[in-house]
Amino acid sequence: MKCQRCGKVAQINLRIYNLKLCNDCFLEFFSRRVRSTIEKFKMANLNDKILVAVSGGKDSLSLWLLLYELGFSVRGLYINLGIENFSEKAQEKVEKFSQEFGLELKIVNIKDIFGRGVKELARIAHRAPCRVCGMLRRYIMNQEAKEFNCIATGHTLDDEASSLLGNILYWREGYLARQSPILEEEGSLRKKIKPFSFTSEEEIVIYARLKNIDFFEERCPLSKGATSFVYKEVFNLLEKRMPAIKLGFYKEFLRKKFFKDKKEVNLNPCKICGYLTVDSICNFCKLKEKVKNLN
Ligand code: AMP
Ligand code: ZN
């Protein structure tokens, strides 16, 4: 097998592009794709400071390193959600990574704010843990990004295509209107970017392996039964029979702009903290009140 770029021996076969590459040409191909995604969607320029939200998994750790290699000024943010037997282990991986590659890291611990972890908070809020976790993560990322130009997350092509499928199956028009590799700044909400929107997890695993990234592989114990895994399985099945279907599906959705002129809900600043919300008080502040009343 020969590298289709340089003619040397190819170690990598990317089915999604029907492309055989050697390790060096793969790294070049990988970073060029992410750089062109950043440029095409005007996500950031080299003077920008980017807060990279990292979970300890392959996607966000790879993104953190790649953005640094591309010359951006980056800081990692790990949010410890106090999930037993999980959050501490993920944090250790993130800390080890940050030391190994000399990258600046900030850690925010939910227990320091609420005195308890997300599982208990979900019970108090009468909501599913994944919803409370998502709400807490979004809020804290925005809080921590005040001095930054944008927040980057490790969402991949697989994440974007499968959440698109989920949103279409239920015709969630509001979500479809907002689904994009970039969300511009809006009031207290910082600009959010997903530079891996056109990069598959298959490619990220190869990058992480070539860079010797020691990432956290466990699934969150609270997310058992999450439908996102089902959509990903569906796509992997489809992808086996029809390589590049994932990429085509997502790209064509963005090109067609079906839902772009849908009217979005009106957001107002929270009366307590100023964070943009649909109600008069945001869910983060409501949860804080509930916890305070228990004490
Ligand atoms: P997930 O929703 O778990 O698929 O994660 C999507 C993205 O959110 C990841 O790629 C990270 O950028 C970010 N993220 C997930 N968990 C955390 C965390 N505990 N702290 C900071 N960022 C996170
Ligand atoms: Zn608030």
Note the topology:
Blueprint: E1 12-14, E2 19-21, H1 23-40, E3 49-53, H2 58-69, E4 73-80, H3 87-101, E5 105-109, H4 110-114, H5 118-125, H6 129-144, E6 150-152, H7 157-169, H8 173-178, E7 182-183, E8 191-193, H9 201-210, H10 227-241, H11 245-256, E9 268-269, E10 276-277, H12 283-294
Parallel strand pairs: 3-4, 3-6, 4-5, 6-8
Antiparallel strand pairs: 1-2, 7-8, 9-10
Helix pairs in contact: 1-9, 2-9, 5-6, 7-10, 7-11
The chain binds adenosine monophosphate and zinc ion.
The site of adenosine monophosphate has 14 residues, from helix 2 and strand 4.
Helix content: 40-55%
| Bound ions, cofactors and other small molecules, one mention each | adenosine monophosphate, zinc ion
Number of strands: 10
Unreliable stretches:
none
N- and C-termini, Cα separation: 66 Å
Strand order of the largest sheet: 5-4-3-6-8-7
Q: Profile the largest sheet.
A: 6 strands, mixed
In words, what does this structure look like?
With 295 residues, the chain is an alpha/beta fold. 48% of the residues lie in helices and 12% in strands. Strands 5-4-3-6-8-7 form a six-stranded mixed β-sheet, sandwiched between helices. It has a two-stranded antiparallel ribbon with strand order 1-2. Helix 1 (23-40) packs across helix 9 (201-210), helix 2 (58-69) crosses helix 9 and helix 7 (157-169) packs across helix 10 (227-241). It is globular. Adenosine monophosphate binds at residues 53-55, 59-60, 77-79, 81, 137, 153-155, 159.
